[in-house]
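Subgroup meeting minutes
Present: P.N., E.W., G.H.
Scribe: E.W.

1. P.N. recapped why we're keeping a running log of single-chain structure predictions: easier to compare across weeks, and new members can see raw inputs and outputs side by side.
2. G.H. added today's entry (212 aa).
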Amino acid sequence: MGLREQKKERTRRHIADTAWALIAEHGFARVTVAGIARAAEVSEATVFNYFATKEDIFFFRLDEYGEHLVQGVLDRPAGEPVTAAFHRVLLAQGGLVDQLDDGDPQALARLRTVNRVVAESPAMQGREQISLTRTAELLAAALADSADSAGEDRLTASVVAHALIAVQRALVLQVREAVLAGELPPGLAGRLARSAAEAFALLERGLGDYGA
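Output recorded in log:
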């Protein structure tokens, strides 16, 4: 990444981090793009250069994480099935839930903010589904390219991709239920890992060797 691209990426993250801080303090509905621009010390035009809507700013991290998941699957070692690679990347250490288990107060604040905002707004729930569906489609396209070269069915690649994202979706909802119920005990990461293991075991009985 060149210096220009690095500067643009820093600006993008600065805007998103500023927006998150404002939303955590005031709530999503009360924060405006103009307010985000003022707090970030950039123009409204600059904000819109990076994000089409306020919702896009809020879901920046989820969108980015989806791209990370897809790239992790593409970079899997030779012979590793797609299901195993997705499982490994999805539960890689260092994520928000791991930070929560480590007692990071900022991680707890972020987790509460995102889940409260999404739970309170059908529109935000819809945008969240758009982000997850986008990840599924990116993964499906990447798997389809490999399927073509291997002479396999592109439809199967799409089914596999959407099944894998369904596991991610289920884990997101499991965390949300815990957050909204005020139940965030130590060991949440381990509990999610066990849930994921059960879900992926179910998929592997049908998808186990796909992409190996």
